[in-house]
Design goal:
Structural class: mainly alpha
Strand content: under 5%
Number of strands: 8
Strand order of the largest sheet: 1-6-2-5-4-3
Helix content: 55-70%
Largest sheet: 6 strands, parallel
Distance between the termini: 45 Å
Shape: flat
Radius of gyration: 31 Å
């Protein structure tokens, strides 16, 4: 069946970026590949997507004669206007005066001088006469003599470009820049990694907005001087560029779009009820222009519900809302308040419709805020509280200030640093009480995440305001403890502040705060190696029986107990404790609580050999970190750890590098150390001994400065000793191993850590020329790991044993060790380790490594692609897969095409025969995100 073929450039998948292939060059290569295949490509995308830039790239990389046609706004009514620009200056031609003359001149130009590439920009503006002549010439020249790329400004199917190219060209949308491309652009400008996600949301990946934004932020003198802080206000240049885009819409469409910008999830029904009778057509026009996009693809496909829309870039929604006059905005909010069904959004619209103060509406809005908080919608609660404060009459300052204080706390909990700072500023300006000022200052600190480098002035101001109030001072000292631990890496000072906080909280009668302070004290005691004091302190905290949600799950003694179980190697117990805390964390709605729980579960499942599940937890944490604007360093560290077990080493290196950069930008020494450890460990796994040793030597230096004395908290010592041994520094390695053994608490069964230290000692023995002792040590370590059910560590130990046996020229022993390693890794679904082991076995057998690794082609697929492949192999139809993955059938079709290209298969039958056996062994977990895993 002949027809238009929609293409998604295969190189744009996230997995490709991991191997160093950036999206933009990959897109250029993709267009060249389609040109080579059929010779006709229709590009399309909205304003600012990069179509003209892509044509420039194609012209710059073309290996044949290149011709350009530029259509302009207004050309439609000027016959041959576009063609005149093409023919201007060409040999033996004159300005066309008739269709026949124009066709002859154009055909002569295109056919003369050998193969050519014709690039046509903004075809939507081309006059009919030029389009007719070019279409005729395109039909008359075969692809081998003339390649043609036509670009059309539309987010929908490019009908004009398709007609010009004969009706059935390859159709390739120019996709928006992804978050990784955004991060690279920021990095080139010296801007912080933490800004990547908010800038990506602001610009929506639209390259014109993105370029303007990066230039404006860099020119404003931001960058590393403000690294780690939240994104500043939207640059004026970005607002102007967004307004310019909106100006391309007809006036009546702009009016409807302005109203849509004021609603939470606008759809045509809602907008019609607000007075926009042409809402259906207007929204459809805005979607085709790329300003809006459907936000409910599944409902739209079913055709049963009105489709909510979303703005493709936050800058567009902000610009649309700001261009509406204040009176128009109030009328729209009043109409929405009558039309929306969500009571919280109804309260929000009713509040925004008011002109001035209104005590009754203020009370209703504050009640809605309480409901939002109970539902875990902390950001919305903060917004409603700010609205309630604004509506509170001036002669009632007490409730206004109390609402502002609550708003600051809710905003910090919901990751809304902008609202936190706004509320705190108003409290200071309106001379709130000492308690209100302290709480607002501490909320600002809480909203800063891991970047506490400039928290000292805030802490000082809070101490001054809290003078004489033990509970307020306790809350301040607890933040000081966190700052000392995270930013300064000064564990002893953190312990001092935490102890003061616990005593002050007890003096002030604040049991909840006392429990949190004691939990922090126990954390620091454990890091400092105070093996007897830490359990006693933690027991005292637990005895206070404070519900974890009252003090934040991540601050609770129950969470610290789970972490200590991880340190002690009691992973099954740790997993149970963490899962028990999940429901409360979901109900509370604090993103950082959920992220910390998911990160801990990823670490535990990786240790237990549930590698696919670990990757899922880490992915959840990474996604919520990005959407909530949380400091990205910790989530990237965990993603690197999980990927090194169940994903790919390439992804692990990428996440470790991003985590390291983000943590250094925010002066987060705690996670700088962790990212360095996982970075060094992955380099060690890949055989990059020098790089591994360098990273792990830095870990050793940092841990020494921090006073860390418990090797079970961050188990970097075995990897460091292996790396040092591999680089000939066995004396340093032995000293590190001896120190770690001395520091271990004899009252705790650290079998797994001792086995890892034994494996490292075996590496030293082999380096010192005693492979027989090394093999004996490795065999014992592997047995210990097997007895504990630590299959990944068991496999890793057998892998090293096989390498030593191979160097001893004992091929049979090497093969046996590697086969045992493969069996362990397969049980754990440890994909990168399976691939590595297969490489060794293939090399031993004299086969090319690619033959062995071909069995594990699932490494080429992204997480979503792997999930879809698993569903298809299980017999799901496209519609069923779409429903399971909450995407549209068209998205399933595009993803399937990408999977086919990556795996070099043609249909479902080949896909199933290729992947089904592998998915049975180590495919995606397909977990339910709301169920314990």
């Amino acid at each position: 069946m002949n027809g238009p073929r929609q293409h998604r450039c295969p190189e744009l998948a996230p997995s490709e970026a991991e191997d160093g292939h950036e999206g933009w060059p990959a897109l250029v290569r993709g267009v060249h590949a389609l040109l080579a295949e059929r010779g006709r490509v229709a590009l399309h995308g909205p304003w600012g997507s990069g179509k003209s830039t892509l044509l420039d790239e194609l012209a710059g990389t073309a290996e044949v004669r290149c011709l350009r046609v530029y259509a302009q706004d207004g050309d439609r009514h000027l016959p041959y206007a576009a063609l005149a620009r093409l023919l201007d200056g060409a040999e033996a031609t004159t300005e066309p005066v008739s269709r026949l003359t124009a066709r002859r001149a154009t055909a002569r130009l295109l056919a003369h001088g050998g193969p050519a590439l014709l690039l046509i920009d903004d075809v939507q503006w081309m006059d009919a006469a030029s389009a007719d002549v070019l279409a005729s010439c395109v039909r008359g020249l075969p692809p081998g003599r003339l390649g043609v790329v036509a670009a059309e400004r539309t987010a929908a199917y490019p009908r004009t470009a398709s007609r010009l190219l004969g009706g059935h060209p390859d159709v390739l949308p120019v996709p928006p820049a992804d978050a990784a491309e955004t991060a690279r652009l920021l990095h080139r400008r010296g801007l912080p990694l933490r800004w990547a996600e908010p800038v990506h949301r602001l610009c929506g990946g639209h390259r014109a907005l993105l370029a303007v934004c990066c230039r404006a932020l860099a020119a404003a003198g931001e960058g590393h001087a403000t690294a780690g802080r939240h994104l500043p206000d939207v640059p004026r240049e970005v607002s102007e560029a967004a307004a310019q885009w909106l100006d391309t819409l007809p006036a009546e469409v702009r009016a409807t779009v302005r109203a849509a910008a004021l609603a939470h999830r606008p759809d045509a029904d809602l907008l019609r009820q607000a007075g926009h009778t042409g809402a259906d057509d207007h929204l459809d026009h805005a979607v085709r222009a790329g300003v809006l996009a459907p936000a409910g693809a599944a409902e739209h496909q079913a055709g049963t519900l009105p489709v909510p829309v979303r703005f493709t870039a936050r800058a567009l929604s902000l610009a649309a809302a700001r261009t509406a006059p204040a009176a128009e905005q109030r009328r729209a909010h009043a109409a929405f308040a009558r039309a929306v069904r969500d009571p919280l959004q109804r309260a929000r619209h009713r509040a925004l419709a008011q002109d001035g103060t209104d005590q009754a509406v203020a009370e209703d809005t504050a009640e809605a805020a309480a409901t939002a908080r109970e539902a875990g919608e902390r950001g919305l609660a903060a917004e409603l509280l700010l609205l309630a404060a604004r509506l509170t009459p001036a002669d009632r300052p007490a409730p206004r200030l109390e609402r502002l204080t609550q708003a600051a706390r809710e905003a910090a909990a919901g990751g809304r640093a902008d609202l936190t700072r706004h509320a705190a500023t108003l409290i200071a300006e309106e001379r709130g009480s000492n308690a209100q000022r302290v709480q607002s200052l501490l909320a600002i600190i809480d909203a800063q995440g891991q970047d506490l480098s400039d928290a000292e002035p805030l802490l000082s101001a809070a101490r001054t305001a809290a003078a004489g109030e033990p509970a307020l001072l306790a809350a301040t000292e607890l933040r000081a403890a966190v700052q000392a631990n995270v930013t300064g890496g000064d564990t002893a000072r953190a312990l001092h502040h935490a102890g003061d906080a616990a005593a002050l909280a007890h003096q002030g009668g604040d049991t909840a705060l006392q429990a949190a302070a004691l939990a922090m004290t126990a954390r620091m005691q454990r890091v400092l190696g105070q093996a007897k004091a830490a359990p006693t302190t933690l027991s005292a905290a637990l005895a206070l029986a404070v519900p974890p949600a009252r003090i934040g799950i991540r601050n609770s003694p129950e969470y610290v107990s789970a972490r200590h179980a991880v340190f002690d190697g009691r992973l099954d117990e740790a997993r149970r404790r963490l899962l028990d805390l999940l429901p409360a964390a979901r109900a509370a709605g604090e993103p950082e609580d959920l992220v910390d729980l998911w990160r801990s579960l990823a670490e535990v499942d990786a240790g237990l050999g549930s590698c696919a599940r670990a990757v899922d937890w880490a992915s959840d944490a990474l996604a919520l970190t990005a959407s909530a604007g949380i400091s990205p360093g910790p989530a990237h560290y965990t993603a690197a750890l999980a990927q090194s077990h169940g994903g790919s080493f390439a992804q692990a290196l990428r996440h470790a590098d991003q985590g390291l950069r983000a943590s250094r930008e925010e002066n987060d020494t705690l996670h700088t150390t962790r990212s360095l450890w996982v970075l060094g460990a992955v380099h060690l796994h890949l055989g990059h001994a020098d790089l591994a040793a360098a990273a792990l030597a830095e870990v050793a230096a940092l841990e020494g400065r921090h006073g860390a004395a418990d090797p079970s908290v961050l188990r970097w010592q075995p990897d460091a000793a292996e790396a040092f041994a591999a680089t000939g520094r066995t004396t340093t390695a032995y000293a590190l191993l001896d120190q770690a053994h001395r520091q271990l608490d004899d009252t705790v069964d650290h079998t797994a850590l001792r086995a890892a230290l034994t494996r490292a000692r075996a590496a030293c023995a082999d380096q010192d020329g005693d492979p027989e002792r090394a093999v004996v040590l490795l065999d014992q370590a592997a047995r210990d790991f097997a007895a504990l059910g630590r299959v990944v560590e068991e496999g890793r130990t057998r892998l090293l044993q096989g390498r030593i046996e191979r160097r001893r020229r004992r091929a049979a022993a090497a093969r046996a060790a590697w086969q045992a390693a493969r069996a362990a890794f397969t049980t754990a679904r440890a994909r990168p380790w399976i691939t590595l082991t297969e490489h060794h076995l293939a090399h031993l057998a004299g086969r090319p490594a690619s033959v062995a690794t071909e069995e594990h082609r699932t490494d080429r697929l992204t997480g979503n692609e792997l999930r879809l492949a698993a569903l298809i192999c299980a017999g799901a139809t496209n519609k069923e897969a779409a429903q399971r993955m909450f995407v549209s059938p068209k998205t399933v079709e595009a993803t399937l095409s990408r999977i086919y290209r990556k795996l070099h298969v043609r249909n479902r039958t080949q896909l199933t025969s290729t992947l089904a056996p592998l998915l049975d062994q180590g495919g995606p977990s397909g977990h339910d995100h709301d169920a314990p895993r």
